[in-house]
Write a structure and sequence with these properties.
Length: 52
């Protein structure tokens, strides 16, 4: 997730979640942080810009 500029909604859809809010809950259950916090902690990699 840190290697893309896709929105959380786009990522959730790609992972076959019908609802980005449910994806966020599942993500937080396993990582103990929300996708937004994870992204802030990890930063967006330069790789995300290379593969636009």
């Amino acid at each position: 997730m840190a290697l893309t500029r896709k929105t959380i909604k786009e990522i959730a859809y790609k992972l076959n979640f019908e609802d980005e809010f449910y994806f966020s809950r599942v993500f937080k259950k396993y990582t103990r942080v929300s996708p937004q916090v994870f992204r802030k902690m990890a930063g967006i990699s330069i790789v995300a810009d290379v593969f636009r």
